[in-house]
Specification:
single chain, 378 residues, alpha+beta, 4-stranded mixed β-sheet, 11 helices
Length: 378
């Protein structure tokens, strides 16, 4: 059966991603000074200003404005109203609410309660070497290549903002071909769309394996034409507004909670990472070739209130048995998740662009439990 599935990605200069990176840069700086800090920092950006908001409880001295300006400069906004040395920064960060803190402060580490209620999802499949879906993998790789061409001066007319989108045609569960690629990139004034189309087509072809392309593959490059004004100067940005880009490109549900700017006591982030870790190890173990895992929590309660598994009929064991194995083999209490994945370290800025999953260097991407899980194979 022929089916089509599409996922998108964005570059680090996209206004929402600017905000994600500022939030995680602040979090990492706080964790460098205080690994036990509580942090939930959000950011919004529009035209010529940035507003920093949220709650921080930490033994740390942090220059929030300097971090924000440094991040904006690193991303590449050095001209226009949003230039790193020109934009206005408003700081509204304050201490954490004691009503929220009571669930995690003054509690034995093993019994730290979830920082909020909610459900988190994990996913893995055998479509790619990283056990991620192909559409989001390709979209991220093109976006990353686009940014690299700008940063290394290969195409000096490129500017920081950009978006990619890839549609994969499936034959049953097999990824058969790339049907459509969409790429929009901010650029300098005076550059012809003909040149942009030619260069971007070459860039796309350098990323996507030729076996996945054919003469029917469609390319839409800057489909609306001129894209000179980008980033927050052209559109507002907000932390946590690219949660599907951050996860699995829409392949599995999302609980709604954003990641960036949050320390690991917030299960929105840490439990989603743990769910990915579990799913990846189960696929690597050969117990299934595709799996979606939902874990749900109540605020202040350590153990999840539910664990749900769907292997889309690819499991060598029944889904309910796999759910039992997960609860037996993996400790899903927030404190244990933090310990298992080492989430008190300042490692989060690298997740703020091009996805939180599929990057081999991240702790939740390791398959160190796969061999042990094979004991459950029939």
């Amino acid at each position: 059966m022929k089916k089509f599935f599409t996922s998108e990605s964005v570059t680090e200069g996209h206004p929402d991603k600017v905000c994600d990176q500022i939030s995680d840069a602040i979090l990492d700086e706080i964790l460098k000074q205080d690994p036990d800090a509580r942090c939930a920092v959000e950011c919004c950006a529009a035209f010529d200003r940035v507003m920093l908001m949220g709650e921080v409880t930490a033994k740390a001295e942090v220059d929030y404005e300097a971090i924000a300006r440094g991040m904006i400069k690193k991303i590449g906004y050095t001209e226009g109203s949003f230039a790193y040395d020109r934009c206005n920064i408003i700081n509204a960060i304050h201490g954490q609410s004691p009503d929220i803190a009571q669930g995690v402060d003054g509690v034995d580490y093993d019994d730290i309660g979830a920082g909020d209620q909610g459900m988190m999802f994990g996913y893995a499949c055998s479509e790619t070497e990283t056990l991620m879906p192909l559409p989001i993998t390709m979209a991220h790789e093109i976006a990353h290549r686009l940014a690299s061409a700008r940063r290394h001066g290969e195409l000096p007319y490129l500017r920081p903002d950009g978006k990619t989108q890839v549609t994969v045609e499936y034959d049953g569960k097999r990824a058969a071909r790339i049907d459509t690629v969409v790429l929009s990139t901010q650029h300098a004034k005076g550059v012809s769309q003909e040149r942009i189309h030619r260069d971007m087509k070459e860039l796309i072809l350098s990323v996507i394996p030729s076996r996945m392309l054919d003469d029917k593959t469609k390319y839409f490059i800057n489909p609306t034409g001129i894209f000179e004004i980008g980033g927050p100067e052209g559109d507002s940005g907000l932390t946590g507004r690219k949660i599907i880009v951050d996860t699995y490109g829409g392949r599995c549900p999302h609980g709604g909670g954003a990641f960036s700017g949050k320390d690991a006591t917030k299960v929105d982030r840490s439990a989603a990472y743990m769910a990915r870790y579990i799913c990846k190890n189960l696929v690597a173990a050969g117990i299934c070739t595709e799996i979606e895992l939902q874990v749900a929590y109540a605020i202040g309660i350590a153990r999840p209130v539910s664990v749900y598994v769907d292997t889309f009929k690819t499991g060598k064991l029944h889904d309910d048995l796999i759910a039992d194995i997960i609860q037996k083999e993996f400790d899903l209490r927030p404190g244990a998740i933090i310990e298992t994945l080492g989430l008190k370290r300042p490692i989060f800025l690298q997740t703020a662009v091009y996805g939180h999953f599929g990057k081999p260097e991240l702790p939740w991407e390791q398959t160190d439990r796969a061999e042990d899980l094979r004991k459950y194979l029939p």
